[in-house]
Specification:
Elements (H helix, E strand, L loop, with lengths): L2 E7 L5 H8 L1 H5 L4 E7 L5 H5 L8 E6 L5 H10 L5 E4 L8 H13 L6 E7 L9 H18 L11 E4 L2 H4 L9 H11 L3 E7 L16 H21 L2
Parallel strand pairs: 1-2, 1-4, 2-3, 5-7
Antiparallel strand pairs: 4-6, 5-6
Helix pairs in contact: 6-9
Length: 238
């Protein structure tokens, strides 16, 4: 198995068929696998999953209750067969072509196992980000870079690719979106070669479902949770 792509899905039943169609190029290589995680969905996600048995390199797993993106991601990563793992979102805002780009970058760097490849979201206004979205993203960059004394920009840029062996040294795996920060900080502190590449994260590409920060109340809540988690990560990864 070459590459394992893990995508946690929370109430994304209508997005999943579109998602699979968009990942045809990735799935064409039978050495690749797509792991879809039913991350405590309360819609018809599981029924959609039950129809995927015809795909030889798509596997699924189920989390009974939604604890958070990080928890679902961990469950998916635990069952991967590939030595190189990639993760992303199910909401279609991440361009599937960027998965292929991350793989090409990995190959271009001579299959270096101590590498950490992460998308960096560009042209935010063009990709329908609100000024509020941009403010919160920038504020998180300033906060984490100051807190960890490292240049940690665009924490939630997707996709993310790294060797599965990185997980063996990670002693704290947040249950929420702070997993992005924990992995990024760990890779930086352990001298992984960090490669950031430009990606278009288009907020208009979401066709169905609801995001975790779609309004100001959610944004504030998520930001406070990430501040709390940042302090835990700072302590745990020291």
């Amino acid at each position: 198995m070459n590459f394992s792509l893990v995508i946690p899905c929370f109430n994304e039943a209508k997005n999943i068929p579109i998602l699979i169609n968009k990942y045809k190029k990735f799935l064409k290589d039978t050495n690749n696998e797509l792991i879809l995680v039913n991350n405590g969905s309360i819609d018809s996600t599981e029924k959609v999953f039950n129809k995927l048995s015809k795909y030889k390199n798509i596997r699924t797993c189920k989390v009974k209750n939604n604890i958070g993106f990080g928890y679902g991601l961990k469950k998916g990563l635990l069952i991967t067969k590939g030595k190189i793992v990639i993760y992303s979102h199910a909401d279609l805002e991440v361009d599937p072509n960027d998965i292929i780009k991350s793989i090409k970058l990995f190959k271009k760097n001579n299959f270096n196992k101590k590498i950490f490849i992460k998308g960096s979201r560009i042209e935010k206004i063009k990709n329908h980000w609100s000024y509020l979205d941009i403010f919160f993203s920038y504020a998180l960059t300033v906060l984490t870079s100051t807190l960890f004394r490292k240049n940690l920009y665009d924490i939630h840029g997707m996709p993310v690719l790294f060797s599965k062996r990185l997980l063996k040294g990670l002693n704290y795996f947040p249950n929420d979106f702070s997993i992005d920060l924990a992995l990024y900080v760990y890779a930086k502190r352990n001298n992984y070669k960090i490669i950031r590449f430009p990606v278009n994260f288009n907020k208009k590409k979401r066709k169905y479902g609801e995001g975790s920060s779609d309004n100001i109340k959610k944004k504030i809540k998520v930001s406070l949770e990430q501040l709390y988690q940042s302090l835990i990560i700072l302590f745990k990864l020291n």
